[in-house]
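[Q] Does anyone have a clean C-alpha cell version of this?
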Amino acid sequence: MQIHHYRRELGPSLEEPVSVYPYTMRTFRSAADVPALHTLLREAYAANGGALAPREEWWRVLSTDPEFDARLVLLVETPIATLAAACIAWNSGFIKDLVVLPVHRRLGLGSALMGHACQAFRKRGAHAVSLKVEADNHTAIALYEALGMRRVETVAA
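[A] Here you go.
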C-alpha cells in the first residue's frame, strides 16, 4: 500500500468555511463526546476496510498525545444530534482524521470541516495544512485536490 502526503498553503486568500445547514458544526465538548466520536470513526474506518483500537485505548493514546488539542476536534451533527462527520487535527497543522459517514457524503460536510480546520490553523499562525491519505482512497483524494491541496510525496506504508 502507498500513502500520499498532501499539503495546502494557508495564504491570504483563504476562503470562509461554508455552512453545513441543516447539520450543525461544533467542537469537542467533553469526555461525553468520546463514545459517539469513537463509534463514528470505527464505522468510517470499517467502510474503507480499516479498524480502530478499542475506545479506552484509542482515547488514552489520542488525548495524551502532545499534538492533541480538543479545540481542534470538529464534529458535525445531524438535525437529530447524531454524529455524521468529524475532523481531528494536530497542533502542527496536520489533519489526523477526516471522516464522513457514507450516508452523509457528497453534502459538503468534508469541505466544511476542512475549511473550519484551515481557519483554526491560520488563526494559530500556521502557514500550511497537511495530511496523509491512502493512495487508493480516490474519493478523499478528489476532495483534497478540489480544496487546493497538492500531493507532495508518496511513500510505502
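[Q] Thanks! Anything notable?
[A] The chain has a mean pLDDT of 94.
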